[in-house]
């Protein structure tokens, strides 16, 4: 029976949300053709595993005994021990935000030769940053909402100039921490005072902020994409209904926001959303499942961001039941094993054996640095 390591948690504002997604995946996969191993990344760092059964195990009252582990090739081992805790055949990334979603974990898995059922490092690094994600979308001819980017350094250096940019841009605006998710730290500013407070909050949480045009009459539309047998499959579109000016963290996780599925869109809007989702997925040669978020407005459809580790792995956009969701996760793992890239030969140039850097003249020519 192949072993699938499910990674979740991490040093991130979304660590707790990641626990929900991780345990959702682990519990759906129990008793399947894969042995699901939960690997939790605590906020203080490192990796642990244990007999986690529910999100309650991660509360203050949780009493699960854990074992600290590290990756050593395709094995989870205790530090200083040789005998592996588990041999890993494939991995599933359920980490929201932080180094779990920005490509760091994907790179670590690749370094250790572990096939991943989740997106690779390069695309993850791009789309973790909302400003870079917009640039990528624009390069593919995908419309994005008007916006500008501010660094924390620029904000600290001259707040007045930053606020003047927002004033010239025109209120109201949406202020977003550039690398955070789950609507954490996002707010609407209708004047300079509100913009100052919103930017101060954004820079408390992140090193950059995206200031974006606010659309009063907008609809939040989601669409996911996944690869099956080498073919890209795009989900039906979903509309998520917010309880206020923006789709908030509370709407998403505390109030169980209402949704319309499939979303009521014109054929033109649906084609724009699904077409853009497919274009992004194919252009960046992605694997695993991702979810693209859009704004449907009176001025058209605008790409907002791409979630490389979507909540519940977006299984609900492809499934009508838990049984179907389980099959969806199994298919992710199957695809990872089937499409694992073959190792390519490494060229040995032999330049260090030619002696051209060891002779006195050669070293003198290069400043005696080698």
Describe this structure in words.
The chain is α+β, with helices and mostly antiparallel strands and 370 residues long. It folds into three domains: 3-118, Rossmann fold, CATH 3.40.50; 127-143 and 216-308, D-amino Acid Aminotransferase, Chain A, domain 1, CATH 3.30.470.20; 147-213, ATP-grasp fold, A domain (Dna Ligase, domain 1, 2-Layer Sandwich). It has twelve helices and 17 strands. The protein has helices at 15-29, 98-101, 104-111, 121-128, 130-139, 152-157, 159-169, 192-205, 249-253, 267-283, 322-338, 360-365, and strands at residues 3-9, 35-41, 47-50, 66-72, 75-77, 84-87, 90-93, 147-151, 173-177, 187-189, 208-213, 218-228, 231-234, 238-240, 259-260, 289-297, 300-307. The strands form three sheets. A seven-stranded mixed β-sheet has the order 6-5-4-3-2-1-7, sandwiched between helices. Strands 12, 13, 14, 15, 16 and 17 form a six-stranded antiparallel β-sheet that branches. A four-stranded antiparallel β-sheet has the order 8-11-9-10.
Summarize the helices and strands and which ones pair or pack.
Blueprint: E1 3-9, H1 15-29, E2 35-41, E3 47-50, E4 66-72, E5 75-77, E6 84-87, E7 90-93, H2 98-101, H3 104-111, H4 121-128, H5 130-139, E8 147-151, H6 152-157, H7 159-169, E9 173-177, E10 187-189, H8 192-205, E11 208-213, E12 218-228, E13 231-234, E14 238-240, H9 249-253, E15 259-260, H10 267-283, E16 289-297, E17 300-307, H11 322-338, H12 360-365
Parallel strand pairs: 1-2, 1-7
Antiparallel strand pairs: 2-3, 3-4, 4-5, 5-6, 8-11, 9-10, 9-11, 12-13, 12-14, 12-16, 14-15, 16-17
